[in-house]
């Protein structure tokens, strides 16, 4: 072998060794960062703030003049551009269907608003101040715990563009299911900046910092150990609580199972060549072909890039604009429920939801003027400060459950998921359902969650 060949080989070996070393450094688990449990997010100076720990009963109520002003807004003459011929929701909300939604909202939904308001008050609502913010939540606590059942605290977490309304059909199953051995004292907070929860006055309140707030909320209510269930942002915030405060989490159950990092990309590429080795038979199409999944993710994530960079701009467009707000939000309830609904002129919205239920959710955003503050969570979570925390590299050792609903926006393999969630004890696949599982299929999600709880109980001999 000539001198030049030996030098080339030596350089190549050094390059491979260095690359392997750097890859190992970039993928090995790291220690969890420490957070200030009292960090202040309210207006003004922390030194001028004295936290009031009182829990206050909250009653949802809006004056007639607010509802009448909304009715007048919906009574305007709208001149929408007609949709392209043969197009459903591929270009966004179909403007031929939008007048039907407006008419129903104005002529059928608003006249019965007081009935809908009573429905939203069906469960007990409260507020309390934590770290400078007024935090709203639904709370069900047993005066007399049901006999013969194990009772656990449960933190239920929603995401965007959802709200606490998503869980209304699941709540009765959790607190009063005669066929279950388990019952739950549930806490369902509105995320900061969503609904009746106050938005941060300062930059920096991302998904990790919200995890601190909700841990503090549960402690204030007397729950030192609890279960967590969540999807969308609720999944990530729940994961962060389980990662940062594992001693407080009995188990973490998610219906959005996704971890991203250098190792996950490599594993997904390998699995795409040998899917049968990594996916239960019959569920390969949850993950593959990857090119199709990636294309769909790119097509459906434009909103995320806007909200992660200029949330206040799009927020200004939607504020005091009920029709624009409804179109912007409801389009997600179409496409994220089933991507094939994009081909339908009505977006398939009424296949899985009632217009009343969907408009309940819209009303929460509209009446609380929370669209801008809700969208800021993207900007605060997808930035260099939050990314440098590298929470995806911190192993989460609490019992973890993953429920995959076929039409959700994204899924990850157990092979990938276990790198972070080392105690994955429950992994399921559902051939129906999409991103809003609690809203769309509450009984299915409930059953999946109970199966997970059963495994945790057996594991820990509660």
Structure write-up:
The chain is α/β, with parallel strands linked by helices. The chain has a domain at 123-290 and 392-462: Rossmann fold (3-Layer(aba) Sandwich). 44% of the residues lie in helices and 12% in strands. The protein has 19 helices and 9 strands. The chain has a 9-stranded mixed beta sheet, sandwiched between helices. The longest helix is centred in the first third of the chain and has 25 residues, at 3-27. The radius of gyration is 24 Å and the shape is globular. Residues 17-23 have low confidence and may be disordered. One of its GO terms (biological process) is epoxide metabolic process. The active site is at 232 (nucleophile), 378 (proton donor), 435 (proton acceptor). Residues 57-167 form the Epoxide hydrolase N-terminal domain. Belongs to the peptidase S33 family. It catalyses: cis-stilbene oxide + H2O = (1R,2R)-hydrobenzoin; 1-(4-methoxyphenyl)-N-methyl-N-[(3-methyloxetan-3-yl)methyl]methanamine + H2O = 2-{[(4-methoxybenzyl)(methyl)amino]methyl}-2-methylpropane-1,3-diol.
The major sheet is characterized as:
9 strands, mixed
Write the CATH fold name of the domain at 123-290 and 392-462: Rossmann fold
Order of helical and strand elements: HEHHHEEEHEHEHEHHHHHHHHHEHEHH
Mean pLDDT: 93
Name the overall outline: globular
């Amino acid at each position: 072998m000539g001198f030049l060949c030996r030098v080339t080989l030596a350089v190549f070996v050094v390059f491979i060794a260095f690359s392997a070393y750097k890859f190992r450094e970039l993928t090995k688990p790291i220690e969890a960062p420490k957070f200030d449990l009292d960090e202040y997010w309210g207006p003004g100076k922390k030194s001028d703030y004295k936290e009031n720990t009182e829990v206050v009963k909250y009653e949802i109520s809006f004056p007639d003049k607010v509802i009448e002003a909304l009715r007048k807004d919906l009574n305007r003459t709208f001149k929408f551009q007609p949709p392209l011929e043969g197009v459903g929701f591929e270009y966004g909300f179909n403007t031929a269907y939008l007048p039907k939604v407006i008419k129903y909202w104005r002529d059928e939904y608003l006249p019965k608003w007081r009935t809908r308001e009573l429905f939203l008050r069906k469960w007990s609502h409260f507020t309390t101040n934590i770290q400078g913010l007024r935090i709203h939540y639904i709370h069900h606590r047993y005066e007399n715990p049901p006999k013969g059942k194990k009772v656990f605290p449960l933190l239920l977490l929603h995401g965007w563009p959802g709200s606490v309304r998503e869980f209304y059909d699941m709540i009765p199953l959790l607190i009063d299911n005669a066929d279950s051995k388990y019952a739950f004292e549930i806490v369902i907070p509105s995320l900061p900046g969503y609904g009746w929860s106050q938005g941060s006055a300062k930059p920096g309140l991302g998904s990790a910092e919200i995890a601190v707030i909700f841990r503090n909320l549960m402690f204030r209510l007397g729950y030192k150990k609890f279960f967590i269930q969540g999807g969308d942002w609720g999944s990530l915030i729940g994961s962060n609580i389980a990662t940062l405060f594992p001693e407080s989490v009995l188990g973490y159950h998610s219906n959005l199972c996704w971890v991203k990092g250098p190792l996950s990309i490599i594993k997904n590429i390998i699995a795409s060549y040998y899917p049968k080795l990594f996916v239960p038979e019959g569920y390969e199409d949850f993950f593959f072909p990857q090119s199709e999944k990636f294309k769909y993710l790119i097509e459906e994530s434009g909103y995320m890039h806007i909200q992660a960079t200029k949330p206040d701009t799009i927020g200004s467009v939607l504020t005091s604009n009920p029709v624009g707000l409804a179109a912007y939000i409801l389009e997600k309830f179409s496409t994220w429920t089933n991507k094939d609904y994009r081909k339908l002129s009505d977006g398939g919205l009424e296949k899985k939801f009632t217009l009343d239920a969907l408009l309940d959710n819209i009303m929460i955003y509209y009446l609380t003027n929370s669209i801008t503050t809700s969208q800021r969570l993207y900007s605060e979570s997808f930035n260099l400060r939050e990314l440098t925390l590298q929470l995806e590299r911190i192993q989460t050792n609490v019992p973890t459950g993953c429920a995959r609903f076929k039409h959700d926006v994204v899924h990850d393999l157990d092979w990938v998921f276990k790198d972070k969630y080392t105690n994955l004890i429950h992994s399921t696949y559902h051939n129906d359902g999409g991103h809003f599982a609690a809203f769309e299929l509450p009984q299915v999600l409930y059953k999946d969650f109970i199966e997970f709880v059963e495994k945790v109980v057996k594991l820990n001999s509660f």
